[in-house]
Recover the amino acids of this structure.
């Protein structure tokens, strides 16, 4: 009896220590999850904090007197005169109305750097379109110069350096107080292609490039992936070739994406002589890359169709192909679509293989077809993140937010599809 | 005619063939007393006509379009007079772009040697001829296929059998694309790699300790050889991957344990998708985060405690990469832990062990091989990861063990060597393919090995 009690005693005494260990272990688990979720939160807040200003543009609104004498322009309908005219001058005049004291050369130069460098083009384009406006006064809204934009948006952020002289800062402060310099939603971001100047750069070109690339990827990867899955699940005989195909699919799913870029460079561009930096080649490469994902999820979807459906169809005399195409495929379709959307989301965020096939070029125009040079969203983000000009960092984070919005909506669509269409047997 | 116009035309013709064969089969069935006297439904006769007209034509079209550029190019280059024939590959591409610029009208023919202008004319006419022949051939094949199918609309022929066999063939081809892709990958790296080893000895590549792929423009320049020793790249890759695994394995494993053993169902339902979100974030976003937030932070902290850190430290890239592969490790470990039979767990708990003791002494040893497989897969992920290191790790190939230093990796070098101006024959470009081959082989071995472990382990308990 005493012996037993002492053993129970030993156990009881050790219990406290063991429970402490148990609690500690549980705490480690919570801490691990906490660290992971915390990094997710830090990642998102960092990007939003850096990037929300990318959605803001700085404008400067001036009453510009389109004086022919100031611009050395007699006839705005004459293209030769338009080429020679000085469109900077009326903008400077308009600014001088606020700062009459700025008359010497240095002041004028500093004054001229308040409006963005495309401001004079804007005046020219206006006169080119409507020559009759020569001599009138127009209220025009220009984009502010990049350094003004940085000053207005980030004056109290130490990670930005202000590149305005003290005089310019005083001017800008006054213009902001007067409401001449103002901030607005950055519609430039969504209506233009890339540019050397942050305030003029947009992601429309990259978005269109991404869409074109994704269309190519989808058109190739979805039918091929579904057909491959049907073959492997329904028709493939148990033999070496089938085994070999399966091994290949599993390995391709784990091959680093950059290797697919080498494949695209050597085969599509080198061997077939396709052009560089075009959505077709990008789409082909990404299609090969997403194919394993689509095949694997489509096979799972086919597997989940219960055998009773097949047996019923076969029982009333359907051929194997009819069973598959008329019954199994429609029932497996929601699962296949879900898997494909997730695969497409992966492809949309992929960067590395596209760098190798030349989609990193600096492209200003919005691409207009599958064979025109283009870049895609993640590559545009990469390019901006590496730019020296400080205004590009906020654009890169804004681009990331746009990209993440696309990805999250695609995944939400996949989840919704699964909930809505998938049947439980 | 352009391929882009020819393709829809072929498809339209296939639809026409479908319609014609459909009507024909009904017409054939009419005197016999309705379609029940046909061996197959009219749909199958029609579908067969469409397939037979479209498929051969599309195959020919694809082959022609793939190779016409190269063939024409070779003919044109061969036609150049001897004094203009290019000596090197670099010169060849220059001459070629000259010729195509003249042909495209971007360059005045008067400005180039006569031979070039002649070649441009030849290029023009060959291109025109090629697209003419292509159009005629493809359309001919389409019509012939349709006509053949039309004559074969007979009541005793089983068209359904034909259609189904064709479809099966197509399905098989689609599955075989996976094999073709692998072959494509192997061949695309192997040729360039062999050429690279013709220029740089394989022993120097594998065991050299210095990497500076700058080849000189002129042969007599100092240091014109460049150094192609892969060791510093490998140590750099290994260091960053090791840091990543040091972050990801404990965090991923512990989260998986907590989620599968302790977490209540609602907690699991919320936390699991959140963790997977980490895997869904594009790598370029992690790269941005590593380069612009984590790296400066690490540099500042190191300065604060009196250490010197590079602004592109291996630590920053490794930490962020670790965060990226957390969900990878956790979902694989989760699978493995859940595969351990219930009986082992219940037995241990029934003996009075606490949950953590059960975990540490029973489940974990049983799941260990599977977890190792998962870690190997994660390692292959880390080694092949590109964007984070391209953006956050440096270009300097330092052979160092200090994680605060800047190192470079295999993938970074592939990207740097292949973006920007390049000529296809220089050792620099070829080196990128050799690195790609190395990367492919290493990740392949890791993957095959890991998959084998995971599968073997699963079979044991199933």
């Amino acid at each position: 009896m005493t012996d037993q009690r002492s053993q129970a005693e030993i156990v009881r005494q050790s219990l406290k220590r063991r429970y402490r260990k148990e609690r500690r272990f549980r705490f480690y688990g919570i801490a691990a999850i906490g660290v992971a979720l915390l990094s997710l939160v830090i990642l998102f807040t960092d990007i939003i904090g850096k990037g929300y200003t990318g959605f803001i543009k700085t404008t400067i609104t001036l009453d510009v007197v389109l004086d022919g004498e100031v611009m050395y322009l007699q006839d705005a309908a004459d293209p030769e005169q338009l080429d020679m005219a000085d469109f900077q001058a009326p903008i400077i005049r308009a600014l001088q109305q606020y700062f009459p004291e700025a008359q010497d050369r240095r002041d004028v130069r500093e004054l001229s750097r308040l409006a963005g460098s495309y401001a004079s083009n804007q005046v020219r384009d206006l006169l080119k379109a409507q020559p009759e406006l020569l001599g009138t006064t127009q209220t025009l809204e220009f984009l502010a110069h990049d350094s003004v934009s940085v000053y207005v948006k980030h004056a109290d952020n130490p990670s930005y350096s202000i590149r305005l002289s003290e005089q310019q800062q005083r001017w800008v402060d006054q213009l902001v107080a007067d409401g001449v310099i103002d901030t607005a939603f950055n519609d430039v971001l969504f209506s233009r292609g890339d540019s050397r100047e942050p305030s003029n750069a947009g992601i429309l070109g990259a978005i269109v490039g991404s869409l074109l690339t994704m269309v190519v990827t989808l058109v190739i990867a979805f039918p091929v992936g579904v057909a491959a899955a049907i073959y492997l699940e329904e028709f493939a005989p148990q033999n070496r070739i089938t085994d070999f195909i399966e091994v290949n699919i599993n390995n391709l799913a784990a091959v680093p994406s950059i290797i697919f870029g080498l494949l695209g460079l050597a085969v599509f561009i080198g061997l077939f002589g396709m052009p560089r930096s075009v959505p077709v080649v990008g789409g082909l490469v990404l299609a090969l890359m997403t194919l394993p994902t689509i095949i694997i999820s489509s096979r799972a979807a086919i597997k989940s169709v219960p055998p009773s459906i097949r047996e019923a169809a076969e029982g009333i005399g359907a051929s194997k192909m009819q069973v598959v195409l008329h019954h199994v495929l429609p029932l497996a379709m929601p699962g296949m679509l879900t898997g494909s959307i997730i695969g497409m989301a992966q492809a949309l965020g992929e960067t590395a293989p596209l760098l190798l096939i030349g989609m990193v070029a600096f492209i200003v125009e919005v691409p207009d077809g599958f064979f025109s040079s283009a870049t895609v969203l993640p590559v545009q983000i990469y390019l901006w993140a590496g730019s020296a000009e400080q205004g590009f960092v906020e654009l890169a984070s804004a681009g990331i937010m746009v990209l993440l919005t696309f990805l999250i909506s695609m995944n939400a669509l996949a989840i919704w599809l699964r909930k809505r269409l998938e049947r439980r047997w | 005619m352009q391929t882009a116009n020819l393709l829809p035309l072929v498809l339209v013709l296939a639809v026409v063939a479908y319609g014609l064969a459909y009507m024909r089969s009904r017409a054939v069935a009419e005197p016999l007393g309705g379609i029940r006297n046909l061996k197959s439904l009219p749909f199958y006769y029609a579908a067969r006509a469409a397939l037979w007209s479209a498929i051969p034509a599309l195959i020919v079209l694809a082959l022609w379009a793939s190779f016409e550029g190269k063939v024409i190019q070779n003919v044109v280059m061969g036609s150049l007079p001897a004094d203009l024939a290019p000596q090197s590959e670099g010169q060849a591409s220059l001459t070629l772009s000259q010729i195509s610029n003249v042909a495209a009208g971007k360059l005045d023919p008067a400005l180039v040697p006569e031979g070039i202008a002649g070649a441009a004319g030849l290029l023009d006419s060959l291109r025109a001829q090629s697209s003419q022949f292509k159009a005629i051939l493809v359309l001919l094949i389409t019509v012939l296929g349709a006509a053949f199918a039309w004559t074969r609309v007979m009541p005793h022929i089983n068209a359904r059998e034909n259609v189904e066999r064709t479809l099966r063939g197509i399905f098989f081809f689609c599955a075989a694309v996976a094999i073709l892709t692998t072959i494509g990958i192997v061949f695309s790296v192997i040729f360039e790699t062999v050429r690279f080893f013709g220029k740089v000895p394989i022993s120097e590549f594998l065991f050299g300790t210095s990497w500076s792929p700058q080849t000189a423009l002129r042969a007599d320049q100092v240091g014109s050889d460049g150094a192609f020793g892969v060791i510093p790249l490998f140590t750099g890759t290994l260091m960053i991957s090791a840091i990543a695994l040091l972050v990801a394995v404990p965090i991923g494993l512990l989260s998986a344990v907590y989620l599968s053993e302790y977490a209540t169902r609602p907690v699991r339902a919320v936390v699991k998708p959140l963790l997977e979100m980490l895997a869904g974030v594009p790598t370029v976003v992690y790269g941005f985060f590593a380069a612009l937030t984590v790296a400066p932070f690490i540099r500042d902290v190191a300065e604060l405690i009196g250490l010197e850190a590079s602004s592109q430290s291996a630590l920053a890239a490794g930490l962020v990469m670790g965060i990226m592969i957390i969900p990878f490790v956790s979902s694989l470990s989760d699978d493995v832990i859940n595969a351990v039979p219930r009986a082992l767990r219940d037995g241990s708990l029934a003996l009075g062990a606490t949950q953590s003791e059960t975990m540490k002494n029973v489940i974990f040893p049983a799941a260990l091989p599977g977890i190792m497989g998962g870690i190997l897969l994660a390692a292959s992920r880390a080694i092949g990861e590109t964007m984070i290191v391209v953006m956050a790790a440096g270009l300097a190939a330092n052979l160092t063990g200090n994680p605060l230093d800047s190192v470079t990796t295999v993938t970074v070098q592939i990207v740097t060597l292949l973006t920007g101006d390049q000529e296809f024959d220089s050792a620099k470009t070829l080196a990128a393919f050799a690195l790609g081959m190395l990367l492919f082989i290493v990740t392949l071995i890791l993957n095959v090995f890991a998959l084998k472990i995971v599968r073997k382990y699963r079979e044991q308990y199933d």
